[in-house]
From TrEMBL:
The chain crosses the membrane at residues 13-35, 47-67, 79-98, 110-134. GO terms for cellular component: ciliary transition zone; membrane. The gene is Tmem80. Keywords: Cell projection, Membrane, Transmembrane, Transmembrane helix. This is TMM80 protein. InterPro entries: Uncharacterised_TM-17 (IPR019184). One of its GO terms (biological process) is non-motile cilium assembly. It comes from Halcyon senegalensis.
Amino acid sequence: NGGHQLPSLPLQILLYVNGVYYTFYFLATLAMIVYKSQVFSYPDDFLAPDLTLLLVMAVLEALRLYLGSKGNLTEEEAPLGLSLALTAGSVLVSIYFLGWQTYVLRADVLLNAVLLFAYGLESVLKLMAIAAAVS
């Protein structure tokens, strides 16, 4: 095909699915933080950081998905690389919610395990797309 690479369809589908899943993840995690603050004695100085991190993660996620999609569709490695770097930030926040937030419920573990699996899969596909764009 004359050295021209097509955008990665699996990556594009996964970015879309991750966008839908993250919306669910955000709402579920927000609901659980509210629930935990009502049911458990949630220290006030821990509630704000948990909420702030969730909001920071939402911004990271929006940028990450936008750059990943843009980089994939335009076959440019720079937005894909930036998206991959932002994924690392999202992974760190997800690990925080998985194990280090004030109260960790089974639902937190499940939600974050699925999210981390999706990040891993997406990262592999992004690396393949970057390799294809560079070659």
